[in-house]
Automatic annotation (TrEMBL):
Domain Peptidase M1 membrane alanine aminopeptidase: 230-450
UniProt-listed SUPFAM superfamilies: Leukotriene A4 hydrolase N-terminal domain, Metalloproteases ('zincins'), catalytic domain
Name the UniProt record assigns to this protein: Aminopeptidase N
Boundaries of every Peptidase M1 alanyl aminopeptidase Ig-like fold domain copy: 455-564
Domain Aminopeptidase N-like N-terminal stretches: 88-190
Annotated source species: Paraburkholderia phytofirmans OLGA172
């Protein structure tokens, strides 16, 4: 591999224990925007389990070293350098005090200590603590922290850090202080402080064992009216973790703080979670149903980290999925339980479908490109580039498979053992697997391959029915197909795949399941087959009629299933499968197949036509009032353009767009009356409700509106959308109406109604940054046309006074929306999208490498596109490679070009 020559590659195989340990940390901050002084007093000792080192090597970045003392005496043998501080010939056990300065006002990377909106915030994961003070900034060095904050009382009236408040008071010269103590040992990446003009929504609740807890959601004063939902989500999270996993909040106080400049979604700092405002602030006027759901999920996610991540943390960053995969699984289960409890399978399936859609569109794509890596990577250049779909989403699927194999109770036993063994420790993915295995009396050696092998497994299925013997055999074969080179070299052998299956009879009902060798049929009509060899045959006996197989029910493993269903069989499954996930899946298979055929035709200029049976299958779902609105909305939504393009031998975004638009128009025109009826029937008059039912109605109604906007004559749709825009009492309906107006207008190069609504939207929400983000995003993702390509609108918006490249949410709302969520426009044949992309990656690289590297990834699949596009992409990648400075972006573009 090319990277063996590069000295900057960090390898899992090179893990060694730290030469020193740090037991306690006392931090003192004098907070001043352009020159903050940090004094750090540590108890340091040699690690008895590590080999001897005379010198102590501490990490540090962008720090100005002031001085060091050892056991109270000035220490002359301290040398600051580009990567940190070296202290020569230190004692075995000593107190070390270091003083250094940093410049939060100039810190645009949003890693370490920075200023946003005049307030101070920190972000330390993964390696930001070293930008605050010199330290052994690695997660296997765990210490207890006390933190003293000093600052101007008028400018920074609120001073927060991890844990419990010990004391606070005034100082001379208009300054004040606060002292915080976190009683739990933690790695440095969980350190946090916040200082500024903030207010909190507060609530006191009793935890399971009856202890009173103070909960706070801190925001800027004008946002206090948007904190209720985050608070409710926090309370629900606390209850859920007690009920489902017996895990209680371990601090007297739990704080969430919202900040508008933030690189990711949120951060689980001990007792002081810091959130992107996008995942905190919501009221019906400003936030959509999706926003409400995302807030619940992210609040849950960060809260659940308190046990899975904080109490038990990662030994090293290769183990990242130990906390992230597990915590995503927990937040997915939390959301499903909130929507449907433990038993409402249809309501739970909605969440499952949404999660699988993300996995297949984003993680499968990652696995097919140059960034493909196992859930537990073997190497990295920049760890920030490995907060990926694979680590998070595939990691969650891997955790889910334990639960599928052992059941909810078996999974819970494994979790209990994991905490019993490892509370307070920094551990590995292997430790987690061993706990699950031991608690369930199983050998899970083979299961380790889910952590070490990259690429998306394929399972092909062949079935045979023997009517005379009443036997039905299912032959499963596993492999990886044509994997990306990055993935291929990790693939060593077959996986243990929990393969859930049901058999469906002629009447649409599940048949009883009895495997060969069993004395009777099992109670459940879904069986989880443990598929562990390259090829394996499972035979069902006493099968009275030839069944239709329902494969990989509830998506029981993150694999691609290959089976030759006929269109009629898929329509039958869509109408009857008792597994709601597979019902949806049948519709998606049907649509995907049709759309790919059409895209192939569009690519070669052959006229398009759509089979009537597909229209009929959609019509049945549309008019089936026994199905929940949210399920119908999911089933009627076509696979995304990005997903479809990824399925082609050579990705052709223009052809995919043409095919998908053709089908949307055809479904709109053929079923116009039905769409209109659904639109009327699922209105939600009266006060806004954030319940799953109400949001299901809105989702289906707004999908109907989007189809109506495709009609050859959209006049009626434009009237409806304009009226909906004007009268909406919530953002879900208002944004959907605006989007429908924009798309209806695209065919005519714009419309008065669309422009008026856009202008109104801006004026109405000028003071709400998160809504203005939507205003940018809606325009960046709109459909284009020959007269006015979207790139022109995007370039114009770059000069809008509200645009700001330094704010990640704003940069994402315009630049990422265009480059990653509008494929047909971004991949314009003239290469204009790629030139724009290169300019923005280069500009962002100088401001915020983490954000720049995310944007850089939107061209990583360039080799999979049609030759006409490939060249333009390569040119753009080469331009970026020759100009960027950060390790973050370099790793991405160099891997893409290798
Ligand atoms: N650990 C955080 C989470 O998943 C995410 C995170 C990692 C992060 N690195 C970050 C957030 C940098 C902000 C900035 O919950
Ligand atoms: Zn996380």
């Amino acid at each position: 591999m090319a990277d063996t020559a590069t000295p900057n590659v960090i390898r899992r195989a090179d893990y060694a224990q730290p030469a020193f340990l740090i037991d306690t940390v006392a931090l003192e901050f004098d907070l001043v925007p352009d020159r903050t002084v940090v004094r750090n007093t540590m108890r340091v000792r040699r690690n008895p389990d590590a080999s001897h080192a005379a010198n102590l090597e501490l990490m540090g970045e962008q720090l100005e070293f002031v001085g060091a003392t050892v056991d109270g005496a000035p220490f002359a043998n301290a040398h600051a350098h580009e990567h940190g501080l070296t202290l020569d010939n230190v004692p075995d056990n000593f107190e070390l005090t270091l003083t250094s300065n940093c410049n939060p006002a100039e810190n645009t990377t949003l890693s370490g200590l920075y200023v946003s909106g005049g307030n101070f915030f920190t972000q330390c994961e993964a390696e930001g603590f070293r930008r605050i003070t010199y330290f052994l900034d690695r997660p296997d060095v765990m210490a207890t922290y006390t933190v003293t904050l000093r600052a101007s009382k008028t400018d920074y009236p609120v001073l927060l850090s991890n844990g419990n408040l010990l004391e606070a008071g005034d100082l001379p010269d208009g300054r004040h202080f606060a002292r915080w103590e976190d009683p739990f040992r933690k790695p440095s990446y969980l350190f946090a402080l916040v200082a500024g003009k903030l207010v909190a929504l507060e609530e006191r609740v009793k935890s399971g064992s009856g202890k009173e807890k103070l909960l706070q959601v801190w925001v800027e004063p004008h946002d206090l009216d948007k904190t209720r939902h985050a608070m409710d989500s926090l309370i629900n999270s606390i209850r859920w973790d007690e009920g489902r996993f017996g895990l209680e909040l371990d601090l007297d106080r739990f704080m969430i703080v919202a900040v508008s400049d933030f690189n990711m979604g949120a951060m689980e700092n001990k007792g002081l979670n810091i959130f992107n405002t996008k995942y905190v602030l919501a009221n019906p006027e400003t936030a959509t149903d999706t926003d409400f759901a995302n807030i619940e999920a992210v609040v849950g996610h960060e809260y659940f980290h308190n046990w899975t991540g904080n109490r038990v943390t990662c030994r090293d960053w290769f183990q990242l999925s130990l906390k992230e995969g597990l915590t995503v699984f927990r937040d997915q289960e939390f959301s499903a339980d909130m929507a449907g409890g433990a038993t409402d399978e249809a309501a739970r399936a909605t969440k499952r479908i949404e999660d699988v859609r993300v996995l297949r569109q984003m993680q499968f794509a990652e696995d097919a490109g140059p960034m493909a890596h196992p859930v537990r990577p073997e190497s990295y250049v920049e760890i920030n580039n490995f907060y990926t779909m694979t680590v998070y989403e595939k990691g969650s699927e891997v955790v889910r498979m334990y639960q599928t194999l052992f059941g909810r109770d078996g999974f819970r036993k494994g979790m209990d053992l994991y905490f019993k063994r490892h509370d307070g420790q920094a551990v590995t993915c292997d430790d987690f697997r061993h706990a699950l295995a031991d608690a369930n009396g199983r050998d899970l050696a083979q299961f380790e391959r889910w952590y070490s092998q990259a690429g998306t497994p394929r399972v092909s299925v062949r079935t045979k029915y023997d009517a005379a013997q009443q036997r039905y055999s299912v032959r499963l074969t596993q492999g990886y197909g044509e994997a990306a080179p990055a993935a291929r070299e990790t693939q060593k052998g077959p996986l243990l795949i929990p393969f859930a299956i049901g058999l469906i009879g002629n009447d649409g009902r599940d048949l009883p399941l009895q495997l060969e060798g069993e004395t009777r049929a099992s109670d459940s009509t879904t069986r989880v087959l443990e598929f562990a060899q390259t090829e394996q045959t499972f035979t069902f006996v006493n099968v009275a009629q030839e069944p239709l197989p329902s494969l990989l029910r509830n998506f029981s493993a993150p694999v691609i299933v290959e089976y030759d269903y006929s269109a009629d069989q898929l329509a039958f499954l869509l109408a009857h499968d008792s597994d709601p996930f597979n019902r949806w899946e049948a519709g998606q298979r049907l649509a995907t197949r049709e759309l790919l055929t059409l895209a192939g035709r569009a690519a070669t200029g052959v006229p398009l036509q759509l089979d009537d049976s597909v229209v009929a299958a959609f019509a049945r779902v549309l008019t089936d009032e026994t199905l929940s609105p949210s399920f119908r909305e999911l089933a009627l939504m076509l696979p995304s353009e990005a997903y479809l393009a990824e399925q082609m031998a050579e990705s052709n975004p223009a052809a995919v767009h043409a095919a998908r638009q053709f089908v949307r128009k055809r479904l709109a025109n053929a079923l116009g009356k039905d769409w209109l009826a659904v639109y009327d029937k699922h209105r939600t008059p009266g006060a806004y409700e954030a319940t799953p039912e109400a949001s299901g109605h809105r989702a289906l109604k707004n999908l109907a509106l989007s189809y109506l906007a495709e009609l050859d004559d959209p006049a009626e749709a434009v009237r409806l959308a304009s009226a909906q825009y004007d009268t909406a009492n919530n953002m879900t309906d208002r944004a959907a109406a605006l989007s429908a107006l924009l798309n209806a207008a695209a065919a005519n190069g714009g419309s008065v109604e669309a422009q008026q609504a856009l202008d109104d939207f801006y004026r109405r929400f000028e003071k709400e940054p998160l809504v203005i983000d939507k205003w940018f995003a809606l325009q960046a993702t709109q459909r284009g046309n020959a007269q006015r390509p979207v790139i022109e609108t995007v370039r114009k918006l770059m000069a809008h006074p509200a645009f700001n490249l330094k704010n990640p949410n704003r940069a994402r709302s315009l630049i990422f929306s265009f480059c990653a969520a509008n494929p047909a426009q971004f991949h314009a044949e003239d290469g204009s999208g790629y030139a724009y992309w290169a300019d923005q990656v280069i500009a962002l690289d100088a401001i915020n490498p983490q954000v720049a590297a995310r944007l850089a990834r939107s061209l990583e699949l360039w080799r999979r596109f049609t030759p006409a596009l490939r060249e333009g992409m390569r040119t753009a990648l080469e331009k970026v490679a020759s100009q960027v400075k950060s390790r973050d972006v370099r790793e991405i573009v160099e891997k893409a070009l290798a």
